Amino acid sequence: MQIKSHSFWQLIVDRRLRPLLRTRWTGQFTDGIFQSALASFVLFSPERQASAINAAVAFAVVLLPYSVVGPMVGTLLDRFSRQRAVLFSNLTRSLTLIYISLLIFQGRTGVELTIVVLIAFGVNRLILAGLSAGLPLVAPKESLIAANALAVTGGSVFVVLGGGLGLLIRRFTDAIATADHADGYLILAAAAGYMGAALFAAMMKKSEIGPAPHQIRKGSITEGFIEVREGFRFLAMHKDAARGILATAIHRGGITALTLTAMLLERNTFNDPSNSDAGLAGLSIALSCAAVGFTIGALIAPMGVRWTGRHRWMRLSMFAATLGTLILVIDRTQILLCAAAFTTGLFGQSVKVTNDALVQSKISDEFRGRVFAVYDVVVNASIVIFAITSALLLPQSGDSWLVPALVGATYLLVAGVVLRPAKFFLKG
User: Fold this and answer.
1) Which PANTHER family match (predicted)?
2) N or C: where does the chain have the smaller number of CB atoms within 10 Å of the terminal CB?
3) Preceding amide of 71 cis, omega within 30
4) CB within 8 Å of 395: residues ≥ 6 apart
């Protein structure tokens, strides 16, 4: 007998899943506010010249160091309460952002600011890994794909909504403060949002999102660092999950390359470089189109999986993701950029939420935290590689067909080789 999957609305109001969604979405809404402030301060400030290299370095600074220490941090998710990790990490983010705003107000925008921003982003990855690892414990088993679609895609939408609110707040503060101080006030608002996420996390029970008391591994943290290899060992035993993680990471890296292209087009080609507000608003529109694609991609993923199976749906989605890149190979205009953002987001999100459910179904909860930490590391490393590569290839205007063409070719290669049926199509 076939078990009926829950609808998205049933999942939203589900008594066990709702606290996790509330915590995740509040944090990601605040991520949007924080990221809009950083984008304004670093990339769209009239006092600073935006370039692909600068943006790529920003990606590397906030992601690459965490990719090195991430697996070690991930062992915490299998040794201690994930609820406590999410709670204290959100508190840490809030305090960190208060300090960042003070640095901006004082004009201290050098290495010290970079290090503190790095800490804020590194803590964020720990939070998302912990919530992803804990989701199977509070979501109905027969609706795991739909629950992932709801959590991940809802989070992406809230990031965009938070970014929009951030732009609105900045417009008001621009009238009463300098550009840098306006960004500082915006970061203070984000600090309050992370405090709210910490409050929601505090409302969850200590072992609600795992690990269960009998599954907590005893021993020192140093021993836990050594055990990170077990995350890789589990992936070696489940080759389809490992290949799915690689495919998802490469798609996310491709999105990063296209985002850099969009940033330069909006900053230096579609708008007057001296009008930073217009450039930032144009980029927000493109990212909003991507968010709509994310939402639709998540909605169709459970249906696609029912029609074709998890593995085949991921492969078809990866093939279809190349359509967005081909749009920008043909030409680069504001309308085509939005169309590319929508298409790439739609099919890429189908790959992401389906693979998250695949990994969660394969890995026991005892090791799920470590595996999702490894998952984050692979994605982050891919983002940095694509960011640096595209930065070296993109002109200052961003008006180039080469980077979209290379991203599309990479997607086709992944769909045809990494996800080939002989290696990827397994039962389930």
Assistant:
1) INTEGRAL MEMBRANE EFFLUX PROTEIN-RELATED, MEMBRANE PROTEIN
2) N
3) no
4) 264
